[in-house]
Amino acid sequence: MIRPCSTQDINIICDIINDAAKAYKGIIPDDRWHEPYMSRQELEGEIEAGVNFWGFEINGLLVGVMGIQDKEDVQLIRHAYTRTEYRNRGIGGQLLKHLCAQTELPILIGTWAAATWAIRFYENHGFVLVSNEVKENLLKKYWTIPDRQIETSVVLADRKWHNLMINKEF
Prior knowledge:
alpha+beta; Aminopeptidase; globular
């Protein structure tokens, strides 16, 4: 079952993110890795900044989360994680499909360039990598992340965004 997350879910969301983010250890640059990967305070800051989390439950247990954030003329998919023991069961795909159906705005997704499995996941769901030049502009416009993270990240966009950008210079 997919449902909106509430403030009562913050600790569980944090647990899911930190469990799933272990996949990044040793993959993303060492200077970008820290433990916990996301503290409760960071998570609360993301929620205060407008990230709305949705969760996937199995038998009453929250096993996956994904956030969506309204940013001017686009929506950002943020913090998509599934508990390690529940991966590869289609949970992320169902959450992504659900969130994409919530908006008519173009959708952008940022992830680590070294997280090839994440890039492949989004590409398999119709998202396309943008060029490095466009990526930097998008990350600076819509995200609040350090320059080092901009260097080591990629952005994927849905077809709506690509269709809008035809004949436009970003």
